[in-house]
Amino acid sequence: RPSLAQKDEVRRKQRSDNCFWNSHRIPSGGTRILEI
Predict the structure, then answer these.
(1) What are the pLDDT digits (tens) for 1-36?
(2) Highest taxon of the source (predicted)?
């Protein structure tokens, strides 16, 4: 099971990834989730 630190890092990556796509207004099929 992933540790809390790993979960937090994944969450942070997903958030920054969403901010990236939102700021660039790239049409995508929904929210992009990073696959670890």
Answers:
(1) 778 888 888 888 877 776 666 655 555 555 555 554
(2) Eukaryota
Token pair of 18, please?
Answer: 């969403």
Please give the pLDDT value at position 2. 72
Q: CA 3, 36, 18 angle in degrees (round to 5)?
A: 100
Closest CA to 36 of 13, 4, 5: 13
> What tokens were used for 10?
């994944």
User: The pTM is what?
Assistant: 0.41
What are the tokens at 30?
A: 């929904």
Task: State how far the alpha carbon of 29 is from the alpha carbons of 19, 21, 22, 23, in Å.
Answer: 15, 11, 12, 16
15: three-class secondary structure by DSSP: helix
